[in-house]
Design a protein that fits this description.
Blueprint (H helix, E strand, L loop, with lengths): L2 H27 L2 H28 L3 H4 L4 H9 L5 H16 L4 H16 L17 H20 L12 H26 L4 H16 L2 H17 L4 H25 L10 H6 L9 H8 L4 H15 L4 H6 L9 H21 L16 H9 L4 H42 L1 H6 L1
């Protein structure tokens, strides 16, 4: 097949993507529940990062010695962030979902929080049970919040609420409107958990724990963190909007489960955590830091300029400048290295390094725009994470990309030479000067 035929075939493929895949992905990414879950976890992760800073103060060698006199106070801060993450999530998710339906966010948030407490605390004696208020209750909080807001929506849509008198303050309106939906939300949960003694929370946790174990395998990591992420970006669709609500609950729960196990002096079990996910790579989806470096030292003026603009953002996992600037998106030359080879050379050694004990399990749920080597170290407090992060996030992806980069760069240089020759031919003054 000649070059022109290949170009025509790929143009048809690109057109098919634009007409079929992109609209479908866009609809999924803007679906109310997906948006609400994404927004809720963004809010909750902010709490987790704050808790991680307090955890670092009690865990980093040297620093922990200085903070030993206030260790108990720092532990309180951890307990009130990590230990109540499901509580924060329940309110945030229900609030955001109610907003998506154009209903009162505060009412939705309170109903979600109430449904969650009824599900996890069916019998309260002299103290509040804490078992499911932290990471163990994340999926319980998600289910309870969605259930509460859907019931609230149905009540409002069908007029099953008390209408407040006219010209009353908004707070009074909210009071009247909440009464009936509150009863409708509470009653089934109360009957199941308290009257019929059905263990709602343990049942939900049992269902999702099997999924969590399936996700936390090498195959699960390759599919979720590699192939799906990379292919989604290659098709020009931001994976955060599509996949974030699917994998963030598992990454968050795994991170906090490891943190709880480490605090209790017990073995940790989960490889896929927030710190591992962001720490074993550098340069965002596709580990593109090596491509930014190649751009910086390129003979091409355009590529050097792109490298100068993109190097800092890419170092901090923001690689849109490269994805759109090279471009990588829908560019056939990057299909094999970006979508197939890079996930293999990054995820397989990073996953096996943790399983084999070459790098510690991540026990500090650290996440953010921090370069991979630093992020993975902060998550594990293991210096061995730094060379492994350079290997999996910088060196191996660079080796994979380099042959394709050379072909790509030659094409750019040929195009620049052609443009320069055309410009010289069109400019008589420049031509006479030369």
């Amino acid at each position: 097949m000649n070059t022109q035929a290949k170009s025509s075939t790929f143009s048809k493929f690109e057109k098919w993507i634009d007409e079929n895949v992109s609209p479908m992905a866009g609809r999924f990414g803007s679906e109310r529940h997906v948006v609400a879950i994404r927004e809720a976890f963004l809010s909750v992760i902010a709490f987790i990062v704050i808790g991680a800073f307090f955890m670092l103060l009690t865990s980093v060698p040297g620093v922990s010695t200085l903070t030993k006199p206030i260790a108990s106070q720092l532990t309180v801060a951890q307990n009130l962030t990590f230990g109540l993450v499901a509580v924060y999530l329940s309110f945030s998710l229900a609030y955001n979902l109610a907003i998506q339906y154009n209903y009162d966010g505060l009412t939705g948030g309170l109903l979600g929080l109430m449904a969650f407490f009824f599900a996890v605390c069916p019998q309260i004696t002299d103290s509040l049970p804490l078992t499911y208020l932290g990471e163990a209750g994340i999926f319980v909080g998600m289910i309870a919040s969605i259930y509460a807001v859907e019931v609230y929506r149905l009540c409002m849509q069908h007029g099953i609420y008390i209408k407040a008198p006219e010209a009353v303050p908004p707070a009074v309106v909210r009071f009247f409107e909440m009464l009936v939906p509150e009863i409708v939300v509470i009653l089934p949960i109360w009957l199941l958990s308290s009257v019929f003694s059905f263990a709602i929370a343990p049942w939900i946790v049992g269902v999702f724990s099997h999924l969590a174990l399936l996700v936390d395998t090498l195959a699960g990591a390759l599919v979720m963190d590699g192939v799906l992420n990379n292919w989604t970006w290659f098709l020009g669709i931001h994976p955060w909007s599509i996949l974030g609500p699917l994998y963030l609950p598992f990454l968050t729960q795994n991170s906090l489960a490891n943190a709880a196990a480490a605090a209790a002096g017990q073995p940790m079990h989960f490889v896929q955590t927030l710190s591992w996910y962001a720490g074993s790579t550098t340069g965002g989806t596709g580990s593109t830091i090596s491509l930014a470096i190649f751009c910086l030292i390129s003979k091409s003026k355009r590529l050097r300029a792109l490298g100068a603009v993109s190097i800092i953002p890419v170092l901090c996992h923001v690689n849109e400048p490269l994805l759109f600037g090279l471009p990588i998106i829908l560019n056939p030359i990057w299909l094999i290295p970006f979508c197939i080879l890079q996930p293999l050379v990054m995820i397989v050694p990073a996953f096996l390094a943790v399983k084999a004990g070459f790098v510690a399990y991540a026990s500090v749920p650290f996440f953010g725009f921090v370069p991979g080597p630093i992020n993975w170290f902060l998550g594990t407090l293991d210096w061995r994470a730094i060379p492994w992060a350079f290997l999996t996030g910088w060196i191996l992806p660079g080796l994979v990309y380099y042959p394709f980069w050379r072909v790509f760069e030659r094409g750019v240089l040929r195009e620049e030479s052609k443009q320069a020759a055309e410009a010289e031919a069109e400019n008589p003054v420049l031509q006479s000067a030369t």
